[in-house]
Specification:
11 helices; 13% strand; two-stranded parallel sheet; alpha+beta
Amino acid sequence: MNNTSKHTRLIKEEAKRLGFLSCGISKAQFLDEEAPRLEQWLNNNMHGKMQYMENHFDKRLDPTKLVEDSKSVISLLLNYYPDQTQTEDSYKLSKYAYGTDYHFVIKDKLKQLLQFIKENIGDVNGRAFVDSAPVLDKAWAAKSGLGWIGKHSNLLSKQTGSFYFIAELIIDLDLDYDNPTTDHCGTCTACIDACPTQAIVQPYVVDGSKCISYFTIELKEELPSTMKNKFDDWMFGCDVCQDVCPWNRFSKPHSEPLFNPHPDLLSMTKKDWDEITEDTFRKIFKKSAVKRTKLSGLNRNINFLKD
């Protein structure tokens, strides 16, 4: 076994030990196919008020602009599918936000992986990315063979569906590269048919400015009256396109204790949410991604769901 293969094996074994669902590796190079798609998506204003999507266009497509002399993009998946979900009589929260903010959890694991690489392979330079930097996570994960991008624009895997986070290490080390997998959406249109706001405007194209997640998390101003009664009780994020996807029959509960929700969260009813106080909000979402929206943002969303 040559050094490149040995290094690749070591990294994948350590990723598994750290709890990652899977690990795939791509050559760090310009994303030719994604460039025109991203440009068209932005030109059509499908990013809505998410102005940050317009920034760093070149960096989004070229990892060598993020890490000098980078050779490899290591893509990693971390499962967040819960073993229990909220009670029926509740305003809904996207499952990814049940526990501790994933940015902290994954960043810590990525730092450990990078440290392992330096200790066991040598003087390797690299950076860790968890969706807070201009990196096209799903494109790299698909390129690395971890799944295909489905009609709802999420990464899908035959083994585990789509309830996982995607993260990357971009490093200046040559490794063995994986091959993309094939698309297994077939003629299925379950996600397109089920989207409450018709945000999936055509297969594989999501108009972000129509997505419930965009409205309930990203949009800071008043919610548009045209969307009244279309949110299907989602107060933070939305999982509809994932919930209806046949491949998510194969989702298995995660084994990351930090992703477990606060004990009170799953049993809260609509009445409880209507009466939520600042203290309760802080207690339940102490380290959660929901803190981004603040209690005022959550209340805005809840009020919008009422008739």
